[in-house]
Amino acid sequence: MSTTGSTGIPITAYAHAPTRSVTAGGTTFAYRELGPDDGIPVVFFVHLAATLDNWDPRLVDAVAKTRRVITFDQRGVGASSGTVPGTIEEAADDAYAFITALGLDTIDVFSFSMGGMIAQDLIVKHPDLVRRLVLTGTGPRGGRNIDKVVGVTYWDILRATLTRSDPKEFLFFPRDTAGKRAGKAFVERLKERTLDRDKDISLTAFRTQLKAIQRYGRSAPSDLSVLTQPTLIANGDHDRMVPSILSADLHQRIKGSELIIYPDSGHGGIFQYWESFAPVAARFLAP
Questions:
Q1: Which of 67, 138, 80, 73 is nearest to 107 (CA)?
Q2: Could you point out which of 5, 87, 179, 210 has its C-alpha 20 to 30 Å from the C-alpha of 140?
Q3: If one looks up domain 14-284 in CATH, what number appears?
Q4: Domain residue spans in the chain?
């Protein structure tokens, strides 16, 4: 599939990437593509409750300067059909169906939060599919306190509602001056796309995803020794949703991985420090 615009020049701005669809196993997946046409693509795996419009354009655009980038809506989310799967394993199977429907047999992965959980399950089942891996704001299956994400999420949604704020400002960023400023800047960046915006996730789908994460946190650990590809792990040092210590746990369990922990930041550390992280991620994922 071409990632060029009407002028024949590759689209490198996420705000301008057209929404497309492909059908696999009875599910129609919505996705967007940008960047150069050639080479192994980088598939982005998104977070809890997120749609195509929840990716920080600063990160996507940085990678798309040199790489073909694909983002997608999971089954039952946004413009994708079907119902949200009840487990992370099923979400990984859906991701595999989507990837193979595009005719791909090798990809790189950029993942955040729940997307990183799905990516891990995908690689455990299909270890030769992914060449390079980026895991941010995430943790391993059975990771301590991942199952507490339900309480943290509902509490922060309440706090956001009372202050008429976007819940991501509370869930992703600390409530100090720098964190509040970074949170508002992040939310504004998500509004840069003005046409063909995605549909918000339904409340039912959101609750199903939360329960899937809770089950993942209460499951037996996976054998991550099969993750032998170059891996970059990043997080903030005060992640309340997926405890930061779990990023260190991943680093210990994935041989040869790199770990970056950003100071005075939370779950959205890569968004708060996007000016530092974007070039690091782009270099790591360079052709």
A1: 67
A2: 179
A3: 3.40.50.1820
A4: 14-284
